[in-house]
Amino acid sequence: MSPSPPVPDPAAGPQREAAERPDLALPADGAPQADLAPRTDSVPQADLAPPAIERARRLTDVVTRLRRALRSSIRTDYPWESLPMAQVELLQSLAAAPLRVGELAARQRLAPNTVSGLVGKLLEAGFVDRQADPGDRRTARIALTPAGRRQLDDWQRAHERRIAAALDTLSPADREAVMQALPALDNLARALARPAAPE
């Protein structure tokens, strides 16, 4: 009986993502932010993954390709889209209210010195400024400037237009399937945002 052929590794896409995207935020140790699935290259490919891991691999691959396709598809029309995603995420965190650097770091799950570097670039661009913290005069809060809010609004509208155009190319059944999946995907995003349970 001939041996079974090796099972292709669907997680190869996420590993390429970290190498191809220099805009990923880097913590203090220089490693890319762990927003992708855990590395599985140490597991022999001939070993069959449990169903839950296989589902996670498929979803990770699709989400990774969606993010890459969206960013690359609008970069030509919107040159400012070269703004690193890590900086966009900081602007999104500041949209509701000003925050201290430590609070931003906790929300983004990044090292404070990494966030300080990102904030410095946003200060230079005029997208944020420092405000006195009424609760502690020794610290400052980071707030969106009008230019930063315009940048964030432009970013949001550009992505909405691009996704709307792509949705129009799908069949009615596929569009409906995507929309039906949104509540479950929203719950998944909330689950990922919760702190991991201790092992």
Can you walk through the features of this model?
This protein has a domain at 71-192: Winged helix-like DNA-binding domain superfamily/Winged helix DNA-binding domain (Arc Repressor Mutant, subunit A, Orthogonal Bundle), CATH 1.10.10. With 199 residues, it is mainly alpha-helical. Strands 1-2 form a two-stranded antiparallel ribbon. The chain has helices at 12-20, 51-74, 85-94, 101-108, 112-125, 146-168, 172-193; strands at 128-132, 140-144. Strand 1 (128-132) and strand 2 (140-144) form a beta hairpin. Helix 1 runs parallel beside helix 2. Residues 1-46 have low confidence and may be disordered.
List keywords for this structure.
199 residues, mainly alpha, Arc Repressor Mutant, subunit A, two-stranded antiparallel ribbon, 7 helices, 55% helix, globular, disordered N terminus
CATH homologous superfamily assignment of the domain at 71-192:
Winged helix-like DNA-binding domain superfamily/Winged helix DNA-binding domain
Strand order of the largest sheet: 1-2
Give the tally of β-strands: 2
Envelope shape: globular
**Broad CATH class of the domain at 71-192:** Mainly Alpha
Give the oligomer, counting copies of the same chain as homo and different chains as hetero. Answer: single chain
Average pLDDT = 77
The parts where pLDDT drops under 50 for at least 5 residues are 1-46
Calculate the terminal CA-CA distance, rounded to whole Å: 41 Å
The structure class reads mainly alpha
Order of H and E elements:
HHHHHEEHH
